[in-house]
């Protein structure tokens, strides 16, 4: 390589302007041929070639200034050597070092070479080609499976493009550095010759400042046809205030006829719509929303955030009371026979490690009644006007824990004996008190019993555990005067309170259910038959 | 049809217009010999000579000032300001001369200059190399401001800008210069300035974004649609000024919810303008507050902290969820 620099052509000339090139890159020139005409402030000078060879690179473009010492042309004089250093640098491939760029005719090709895939592997055997010549592949597609002495490696394609040539056949050995495939990546970035190689590299690696993400990911093609279409469904015109009101009242605002300007839905329209729907008794279950109360914090008070268990109790109770129009019935039953039975059975139970409580008997009586009165073991879907009957009984019972009320339930309680019920009640209650209940234990209950007798209360109006439809409150057993025949005797009296969802259970149904429970508790031997 | 990345599409457009229109000149810092710091003008000086594609001193005010003079005298300068943050020295020329000549001369003179500027962050740049200019430029009457998000749009909009009788500032999302390729027709075509593009139709929410930000928006929408079983309308604003209010308003009337996502600073940012538009023109259709997701009110951080500033896919997903469930 010969670097021909612009020299002082005499008379103190320091710079010139390139007027006209007589040669271009790639031309063969002989020593003495005119290369270029340079205009100086004194003369226009023709610069002759100092050597014979091929023009590898011109230093300046027509119209540009050239200073003494700058390169006019670089000539390949056949003596070898590289282009000046800075040029070489720019040619360094930006892509993986295993790749090289080669020109085969006008085809732009990418020579993908077999590289050391780790652990000093020097060669491999082509096991299976996943592609053949002419195939289109995407960057990352597996090209070939190569067996080495360590692993079978799948080689992914380094670029997207078309397979021009595969380097080895199946069964042949391939060494590090040998061509795996030649790929035509179609970008035209690797055109022929040394010079375009330089340019291609400049373009792909270009980022003078910062880091630019380079990728050949294909973006979906585009055109100028799409435009927003007219609204397909009717949308109500309304202010946010009106929309909020509709939401509160559980009204779909798009169904409300608007009386305002341009059919705007006014607040009054929404209220009227909600009212008319209530009359027609087709309202949906309204979402629970708690009106904002102005809770005074004045005076000598302390404010304490409640723990999450209390929050969920508050939510559950609010939900139940907001949704369920409940009704409560109360009565009492003389359980002398049950008291007697329990007394006799207790030693047997203890021998089996069971603490036989009245609760287990009440549970059994309720289970039998639930099997007979199926609507008490159901849920109600008001939106769809459907009753969901459950063919399983998960009997819940309220547990008074230090953290607050918990309601675990006994799964498939109808399959258990009274002893088993007693045992499960104890275990579930212990776990609840210790805050060790599993989520499953408190989910999916179908009916609940609450025992407020344990705190000395006889009657209450228990809150239904929504979406269940009934809850039985068990009061304190006490000795009371009872009339037997025409005489007054002392009897063991158990007070019961039942709350039901009046939407699907009428008072008479609740009375019949309660009557059956009373009957079973008064005559516990019937439970054997139930 | 060739698949080009955004910078190649710009290069092809400049090449085409230089060839077609002898009045077109292309210049700026490093634009000539180097072919531009991002190589947008690579090969053009060689092809068209130093009289038409040339380097300038580091003097943005004079780059714009000379372009104004050329434009008034019938040339079509397509100049480059090397980075967004370098526009400020030229601001006087832009605001007081470039944008006002038509008004000042009662329509007798125009200054049809195109200013190309690589804009926005995400490349771990230095200070002054990663800024968002939407508000600064969109506030100036008398110029149009454009920002494409795809190679196809870049060519169509740049061609339109070069054909414009008035000055156009062409913001190039430098972060996605080379991040993907798209089919770009060889022949010349125009995408009208001032027209947004509905990238994807939907019914539950309208998301507006532009430039590089759309990559995150598109990715977020794809995931959130599946997760929430909703459909989201995505609009590429494409022209920052004048705003295509019709496309946005009609979309919000259909979906009832509006989210604008931009990397630019929040306060007085482009999102504020778009929310005001939605509020004025589609108020009665809104089911959730018109909302913006934006960069912070700070100088965009340097490389190490930059990702905190950029709006990512997860943030967009969370905001969409919030609005749909409002």
Report on the architecture of this protein.
The complex is a heterodimer of chains A (530) and B (326). Chain A has 530 residues and is of the alpha+beta class. Chain A has 4 domains: 2-76, OB fold (Dihydrolipoamide Acetyltransferase, E2P) (Beta Barrel), CATH 2.40.50.100; 110-184, Beta Barrel (OB fold (Dihydrolipoamide Acetyltransferase, E2P)), CATH 2.40.50.100; 240-275, E3-binding domain (Dihydrolipoamide Transferase, Irregular); 326-528, Chloramphenicol Acetyltransferase. Helix content of chain A is 24%, strand content 28%. In chain A, strands 18, 21, 24, 25, 26, 27 and 28 form a 7-stranded mixed sheet that branches. In chain A, strand 19 (378-381) and strand 20 (386-389) form a beta hairpin. The model of chain A is unreliable at 84-107, 188-205 and 280-286 (pLDDT under 50). Chain B is an alpha/beta fold. Chain B folds into 2 domains: 2-184, Rossmann fold (3-Layer(aba) Sandwich), CATH 3.40.50.970; 197-324, Rossmann fold, CATH 3.40.50. Chain B contains 12 helices and 14 strands. In chain B, helix 1 packs parallel to helix 7 (151-163) and helix 9 (245-255) crosses helix 10 (270-282). At the A-B interface, helix 2 of A face helix 7, strand 9 and helix 9 of B.
